Amino acid sequence: MSANEEVVCPWCQTEIVWDPEIGPEDECPHCFNELKDYRSIDLKVKLTGQPLRFQDQEFPDADEDLSLAWDDSDEPLDKYGEKVQHITDEQEEAPECSNCHELLLLAGNEVVNETSFTPTIPKTLGSAFLTAPFTMNVYVCPSCFKVEKVLSDTDRLLMVERIKSE
Fold first, then answer.
1. Can you name the residues that pair with 137 across neighbouring β-strands?
2. How far is Cα 47 from Cα 53, in angstroms, rounded to an integer?
3. What whole-number percentage of the chain has pLDDT above 70?
4. Which of the ends of the chain has fewer CB neighbours closer than 10 A, N or C?
5. What is the DSSP code string of 46-104?
6. Alpha-carbon distance 89 to 33, whole Å?
7. Peptide bond before residue 133 is cis, with ω within 30 degrees of 0
8. Which letter does DSSP use for residue 108 in this model?
9. pTM
10. Rounded to whole angstroms, how far apart are CA atoms 3 and 65?
């Protein structure tokens, strides 16, 4: 490569001027991407109507048989998805996961007692709007497995009544 040869970064399109004493740059000084063959493909433009061809590259595992990696039946995933769908259909309420927006599965109820909960008393009300014991519905996301808890219907109504009456 001569000092007069123009080098342009394929990533940021910056012209790279290099010092003849040091030699050509290995990475772009502007965007820091590599300037060698790494992450680059060469396309040769043919006449109109001819297909484009990539340079043939030999990959180390090119002859490996991957046919077993994707089972045509997809039975475990389909079976799991079908069961999840049936479970959500049976539920009265299926909130959406705050993480991935899938419908949550009701896993059960958690009762919070007086020893594990200390209520806050707002100055506006003068008394606690949520007192133990109360029940929370525990939901699990079938996709990302995040656990979310929501106050049960009866305790929601009780909380609303306490806030309204004060």
1. 109, 150
2. 12
3. 70
4. N
5. -STTSPP-BPP---TTTT---TTTS-TT-HHHHHHHHHHHHHHHH-S--PBPTTT-PBP
6. 50
7. yes
8. E
9. 0.52
10. 47
